[in-house]
């Protein structure tokens, strides 16, 4: 093979699920389908250098985070390489340098696994395309999402924008458990430039890793009902996105967030991942929405931070509300303004 060395650089954004993925089968197959908004500002930028080795024994790579060696990432990357080597046979032929940075502050409580694994998958696909120039764009992106899924499930929704479905669903054309696909329906204009302001309530280490969290859905008393509900909610959300039905959007999105946390509160062992200030914020949003009719709602990840979602045309009002009434509930008044985005990009 004539390719001896080179490098690529890709950025990939984070994403925020509206219908949540929580629970998985073997090989990172989701127990239920999920749908997310791809974000724009919160992203990982990864440069991948590669150099042909003398012999193809084992994996060989150096890891840098913000320019400094970062050995603590090694087990995760090693495990990822083991999972994907069957699909990327060149992995053992090269020495890699993986140089990564995030646009959001580390230990902000914002998970970088989705953006990080997606950025790495894009880079690896660029190497594959260099070795196999005949592969099509469709194959390139689909396989990138497939690989990202094997790194971190939700990462498969960070390859493309702006609304992505992962998991097989009867009413979503082309949907698959193996990779994320852009939502093919005509999304209503009200969701163009949809805003996500992330309030940093608790920046501490995650109490429950998502790996453990997904495992808690095995033998969970409400698992089957929950998986069925996710299908129903995805059907309803699909209609809301197309019709621009913000009332329905809000009801489904908030209920999904609370259900995710309810699953954790009712598993064995059980966890409460919200903090008192998470509840203060939720109550303040409900009060503000009732008093002003501004269509703002919240969603949550598997942690205490709150994502506030709203259409661009009410940004001024919502940002005023956030600054005046919610920042006191955030750690060091910290928040991040983000919005719906277009997916990964080659630098
Ligand atoms: O991709 P994972 O295994 O870190 O799981 C992410 C799960 C949630 O963020 C809680 C929900 C989701 O669909 O993104």
From TrEMBL:
The keyword Ribosomal protein does not apply. Residues 198-326 form the Mvd1 C-terminal domain. One of its GO terms (molecular function) is carboxy-lyase activity. Keywords: ATP-binding, Lipid biosynthesis, Lipid metabolism, Lyase, Nucleotide-binding. SUPFAM superfamilies: GHMP Kinase, C-terminal domain, Ribosomal protein S5 domain 2-like. GO terms for biological process: isoprenoid biosynthetic process. Residues 12-171 form the Diphosphomevalonate decarboxylase-like N-terminal domain. The keyword Nucleotide-binding applies. InterPro entries: GHMP_kinase_C_sf, Mev_decarb, MVD-like_N, Mvd1_C, Ribosomal_Su5_D2-typ_SF, Ribsml_uS5_D2-typ_fold_subgr. PANTHER family: DIPHOSPHOMEVALONATE DECARBOXYLASE. This is Diphosphomevalonate decarboxylase. It comes from Flavobacterium subsaxonicum WB 4.1-42 = DSM 21790.
């Amino acid at each position: 093979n004539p390719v001896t060395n080179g490098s690529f650089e890709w950025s990939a954004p984070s994403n925020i699920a509206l219908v949540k993925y929580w629970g998985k089968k073997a090989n990172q197959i989701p127990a239920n389908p999920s749908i997310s908004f791809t974000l724009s500002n919160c992203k990982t930028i990864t440069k991948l250098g590669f150099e042909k080795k003398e012999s193809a024994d084992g994996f060989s790579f150096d890891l840098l985070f913000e320019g400094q060696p970062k050995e603590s990432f090694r087990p995760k990357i090693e495990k990822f390489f083991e999972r994907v080597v069957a699909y990327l046979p060149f992995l053992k032929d090269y020495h890699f340098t993986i140089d990564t940075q995030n646009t959001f502050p580390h230990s902000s409580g914002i998970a970088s696994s989705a953006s990080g694994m997606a950025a790495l998958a894009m880079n690896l696909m660029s190497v594959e395309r260099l070795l196999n120039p005949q592969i099509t764009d469709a194959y390139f992106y689909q396989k990138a999402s497939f690989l990202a899924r094997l790194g971190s499930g939700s990462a498969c929704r960070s390859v493309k924008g702006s609304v992505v479905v992962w998991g097989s669903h009867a009413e979503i054309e082309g949907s698959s458990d193996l990779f994320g696909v852009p939502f093919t329906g005509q999304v209503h204009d009200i969701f163009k430039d949809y805003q996500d302001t992330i309030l940093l309530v608790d920046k501490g280490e995650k109490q429950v890793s998502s790996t453990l969290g997904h495992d808690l859905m095995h033998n969970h008393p409400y698992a089957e009902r929950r998986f069925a509900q996710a299908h129903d909610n995805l059907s309803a959300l699909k209609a809301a996105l197309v019709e621009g039905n913000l009332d329905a959007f809000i009801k489904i999105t908030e209920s999904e967030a609370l259900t995710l946390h309810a699953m954790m509160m009712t598993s064995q062992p059980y966890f409460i991942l919200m903090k008192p200030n998470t509840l203060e914020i939720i109550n303040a949003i409900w009060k503000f929405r009732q008093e002003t009719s501004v269509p703002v709602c919240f969603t949550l990840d598997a942690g205490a931070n709150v994502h506030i979602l709203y259409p661009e045309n009410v940004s001024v009002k919502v940002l005023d509300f956030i600054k005046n009434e919610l920042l006191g509930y955030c750690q060091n008044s910290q928040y991040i303004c983000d919005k719906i985005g277009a997916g990964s990009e080659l630098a």
